[in-house]
Design brief:
The chain has two domains: 215 residues, 3-Layer(aba) Sandwich (Rossmann fold); 83 residues, Orthogonal Bundle (Tyrosyl-Transfer RNA Synthetase). It is built from 15 helices and five strands. The longest helix is centred in the C-terminal third of the chain and has 29 residues. The chain is mainly alpha-helical and 340 residues long. α10 links the parallel β4 and β5. The strands form two sheets. A three-stranded parallel sheet has the order 1-2-3. The chain is globular, with a radius of gyration of 21 Å. Bound molecules: adenosine-5'-triphosphate and magnesium ion (MG). Adenosine-5'-triphosphate binds next to β1 and α1.
């Protein structure tokens, strides 16, 4: 799959986030930043995936419902504008659930079980064989989301690449059943930091693993997270030469610091020896504090006006209901079900 090509001519873009927690720094570098730029020239829709959030939280639905507006506030706080991007709620778009039902018949259980992201998520969540059917099949519902909008470009973190492959397989099956092109294949758009690790470096940063620095994190939380960050375990004394690869402080500096030249000097110095982790962490903390301060402030202001956030979702969902109903009509047609 080509992951970089074609982001400069107008395309239909669909992205989304599970409503399983507030958004974090991984989302910021993995997709939010790009969405802010992409909304200037493309037809962009962002889906708050509440139904997908329920696939592993059905017995704790509040976790999902209580985060819907938080996520909308996160979007607005980083600069996503409802006048340029349609923001909608998955559960308000019945056509997506219906498309999922049709696609379910085109995918085998063994294909779903081969999905590497789903495999590792099942392991992380300790599901073993008691996986909710909805969780195992969420790549199919994600295919419904993407094709439901006829999206050609999907900005995602690299954990989502298997989902896009699965989507394109479904698209090809639908088109071959129809004997013509009804759905279009999509391409992923990866950022320069497609998978931000957690501060301990053990996993990707993720809402569900409780290892995230949220966009609304307080000054104290940011400071504590940076202080606890994994560096080079063999860099014991300041004068020791240190390793930059796998050192999470440098991974974050690469992802977030605006001055690349300064960071490469810092890396040289660290490799040579004579630069302590306290200093590199201080540089990182200052950069994250500066970056998150205005986002936290705007986020707080947006959350003070919940009616405005709900209104954005209502309007965006209305527009999206119409778009997705058209795709559903075309897919039902293939199965001969538009009888009346
Ligand atoms: P959950 O743990 O509930 O799955 P999550 O933190 O993985 O939450 P998602 O809502 O699943 O977040 O992902 C939304 C988008 O953000 C996807 O495109 C995903 O690839 C991207 N993303 C999530 N985490 C990261 C990360 N650590 N680095 C880069 N991109 C990420
Ligand atoms: Mg996820």
């Amino acid at each position: 799959m080509n992951t970089k090509q074609g982001a400069d001519k107008p395309e239909i873009i669909l992205t989304g986030d599970r409503a399983t927690g507030p958004l974090h720094l991984g989302h910021y570098v993995g997709s939010l930043k790009q969405r802010v730029t992409l909304q200037e020239i493309h037809e962009q829709t962002i889906l708050v995936a509440d139904m997908q959030g329920l696939t592993d939280n059905a017995y704790n639905p509040k976790k999902v419902s209580s985060n819907i507006l938080n996520i909308v506030a996160d979007y607005l706080a980083v600069g996503i504008a409802p006048s340029k991007t349609t923001i909608c709620l998955q559960s308000q778009l019945p056509a997506l659930a219906e498309l999922t039902m049709y696609y379910n018949n085109l995918v085998t259980i063994s294909r779903l079980e081969r999905n590497p992201t789903v495999k590792s998520e099942i392991q992380n969540k300790g599901f073993e064989r008691s996986i909710p059917a909805g969780f195992l099949t969420y790549p199919i519902s994600q295919a419904a989301d993407i094709t439901g909008f006829n999206a050609s470009l999907v900005p995602v973190g690299d954990d989502q690449l298997p989902m896009l492959e699965q989507t394109n397989e479904i698209v090809r099956k639908v088109n071959s059943l129809a004997g013509r092109i009804v759905l279009s294949e999509c391409r992923p758009l990866l950022s320069n930091a497609p998978r931000l690790p957690s501060t301990d470096g053990k996993n990707k940063m993720s809402k569900s693993l409780g290892n995230a620095i949220n966009l609304g994190a307080t000054e104290k939380e940011i400071s504590a997270a940076v202080k606890s960050m994994y560096t080079d375990p063999n860099h014991l004394k300041v004068e020791d030469p240190g390793k930059v690869e796998g050192n999470i402080v440098f991974t974050y500096l690469d992802a977030f610091h605006p001055d690349e030249g300064y960071i490469s000097q810092l890396k040289e110095h660290y490799r040579r020896g004579g630069l302590g982790d306290g200093t590199t962490k201080k540089v990182l903390e200052e950069c994250l504090q500066d970056m998150l301060r205005p986002i936290r402030k705007r986020r707080g202001e947006f959350l003070n006006d919940k009616a405005q956030l709900v209104d954005i979702l209502i309007k965006g969902s209305q527009i999206s209901r119409e778009k997705t109903a058209k795709v559903l009509f075309n897919v039902k047609d293939i199965f001969g079900l538009n009888i009346f």
